[in-house]
Amino acid sequence: MKLHSCQNCWFNGLQYGAVGLSFGYCARHRKVLNLPDETTCGQHIRKDLSSKRAEEVAVYHSKAYADDKIVRLTTGLEVASDASAAARDVNIIRSDIVGESVVDYGYLDSKIESLAQLRGIRSARSDIALTSLGRAYVQNCARRGGRWTSGIHLFWWTKKRLAEVPQLRVEDIRYAGHIQLSRQTDLAAWSVMMFKLYLLDDIVSYAGIQNDVLGRESGIANSAAIAVPTFNVRKLSAWISRELLPALEARLDYERYSELSRELHQE
How far apart, in whole angstroms, are the C-alpha atoms of residue 237 and residue 111? Predict the structure, then answer.
């Protein structure tokens, strides 16, 4: 996986590692990505890092590439065939149930509604899209000085299904590795679960900055990696159920979630 490519950027909700469609879609540039493993831009922000670390890395990346165009990762040159904003190409992406919500997120002002649509689709690919674009949404709210509770629905939706092991189908795998398919799907499921932990970590970190008690649970993804260092999805699921969910529930139960949600909607 090329870590600085469009495939590994928050703004592309259609791919993560080996999982996803062959084509990507950039919600920032509003373009179909024909070679997402080979392209990048100055707005790139890595999916595989915590928000703090990803933002630090992004500062250096933005100095090497322009913000306003999609270019080759190796040469920095723009190739017209690498990306497309043509309606026909975008509509093909829209024909996919996950792709439709991802495109809507890029085009419409109703970001949270697009994320809510993804929540209703139960698949590994929808989890990737919700997590990718959810991280971008939360970061944007934070940069604008919004409260951490802007991401409270994302937090709650993600937490509810956090311990579930994603069930990947063969068509969810976009390229083959040099390992057995069963092992590759297990590794892909593990990466999706860890990716969701990063979204929770982002929200918890912002809560901590604003002195909310939820912030005391920061470092979720790092704790998971220490507790389950063997890429075992069953053990990761068990740790989430046994250790993480009770800790999060103690800081934010349904009653408090409902109260904060009402306050958010009154603003």
Answer: 29
In the chain, beta strands by DSSP E: 15-16, 19-20, 24-26, 31-33, 39-40, 71-72, 83-84
Write the Ramachandran bin of 106: left for phi over 0, alpha for psi from -120 to 50, otherwise beta.
alpha
Angle at which helices 181-209 and 152-160 pack, to 10 degrees? 150
Q: What residue type is 149 in one-letter code?
A: T
72-94 residue pLDDT tens: 999 999 999 999 999 999 999 99
Write the DSSP symbol of residue 166: P
Q: What pTM was computed for the model? A: 0.94
Q: Mapping DSSP to helix (H, G, I), strand (E, B) and coil, where does residue 16 land?
A: strand
Q: What is the pLDDT of residues 131-146, one digit of tens each?
A: 999 999 999 999 889 9
